[in-house]
Structure formats: C-alpha cells, structure tokens
Amino acid sequence: MIMPRLPEEFFAHLRMVRSPEAGDFARTTAMRLCGQWGQMEALAAARDWARNEAKYPLRIAAIATMGDLGDVTDGVELNRMLATAPKGLRPALETAVKNIARRQALAQAGQ
Which among 26, 45, 25 has a CA at the least distance from the CA of 35? Predict the structure, then answer.
C-alpha cells in the first residue's frame, strides 16, 4: 500500500539509502520505508541494488521495494531474476512479482 506523500523532512531515509556512509541495517530499513511510503525517487536505487548488491538483506529490501513501487517492466525483470535466483532470494522475488501484478490488475480494473 502506498502511503500519502509526507512533508520533505520525513524523508531523511531517502538520503540514507543513497549514503554509502550509512550502515547496512540503516540502509535496509531506509529502503523499505521508501517503498512502503511510495517514494518513487528510491526506485532507481532499488533496481540497482536488486541487480548488483552482494549483501542479501540489502538486496531483499531492494526487491521488496521494487514490488512496492515498480511497474510491469520491473515485474518482467524480477521474473527473469527469479529463474536463476539463489534459494534465499526466491521468496522476496515471488512476493514482489505478485505485488506488481496485483497493482496492475487493480489499475486496469479502475479504468
């Protein structure tokens, strides 16, 4: 569920996602908050982390955020990743793909 847009001061977490100085736990949490609060500005970072991040917690957070914010092309990308993903990433990928598909179905039903 995408939350209503909040005032800018509430989005220190978006800056934290982009900060290499922040610790992994803080960046993981910040990425998820961006996804849950509908911060589309975090989608590019989520796409990059989902493809390239070596650390599973960051990668899983990015995949979940893609599920929250991504579009049909992101769903295709996540499905492609699912085909060769290590076992530890599969649940996050499956859930993200389902979330994107559900949002797309709701959008089409509302047209």
Answer: 45
